[in-house]
Specification:
11 strands; 2 domains; eleven-stranded mixed beta sheet; about 40% strand; Tumour Suppressor Smad4; about 200 residues; single chain; alpha+beta
């Protein structure tokens, strides 16, 4: 079940024998996509890196994943339909132009690399944190300078929502990064979360 106020989230639990160790978000998404194509439930993932790992306080220590100190967490999965093509993501989707004046981000994790993009995001609350930015070129450097500490919000040119599903029109076809890897280009994005789909260990 998704997180609830006053209820402990996660439990002590090591990576099972059939679990899969992944080193970043993109690798985690590939494992999930393969399982879905084959009609299987995704395996439990041991996280050794990536923004979801950082959000969960992962120590990037493989021996810990199979120890009595390991923590297991239920995690939501992001799904996006890009002009009719289906993709999944475990941490985030970012669509943007080259100058970063037009950016749309959907977050299931708190971080994108060194940036604290979504300080309120939680990977098991059944909500995507979305940010639709339409910045003047003079604002881009200011926003980027504040991103490492998560102090870029509120901003009059960044619209923030917390929602289980959203459809957005990017005005024109734009490059789209899923879990840090450029995967597609598209204009219309239909996103939703699948709650509690994943089990991850840190």
């Amino acid at each position: 079940m998704p997180i609830a106020k006053g209820v402990a989230w996660g439990w002590l639990g090591r990576l099972p024998d059939d679990g899969v160790v992944v080193h970043d978000d993109a690798e985690a998404a590939r494992v999930v996509e393969t399982a879905r194509r084959e009609g299987r439930s995704p395996p439990t993932l041991g996280l050794l890196g990536g923004d979801l790992c950082r959000t969960l306080g992962g120590l990037r220590d493989e021996s810990r994943l199979r120890s009595s100190e390991a923590m297991t967490f239920p995690v939501d999965l992001g799904v996006v339909l890009v002009d009719g093509r289906l993709h999944v993501f475990v941490a985030h989707l970012v669509a943007r132009n080259q100058l970063w004046t037009r950016v749309f981000a959907a977050m299931n994790a708190q971080f994108v690399g060194p940036w604290d993009v979504a300080p309120r995001s939680h990977p098991n609350d059944s909500l995507l944190d979305t940010f639709d930015a339409r910045l003047r070129l003079s604002d881009v450097a200011k926003v980027r300078a504040r991103l490492p500490l998560g102090t870029h919000l509120p901003h009059p040119s960044i619209r923030q929502r917390r929602t289980p599903a959203v459809t957005t029109d990017l005005d024109r076809r734009r490059p789209i990064w899923l879990d840090g890897v450029r995967k597609d280009t598209g204009r219309v994005l239909a996103l939703h979360l699948e709650p509690d789909v994943l089990r991850v260990v840190v």
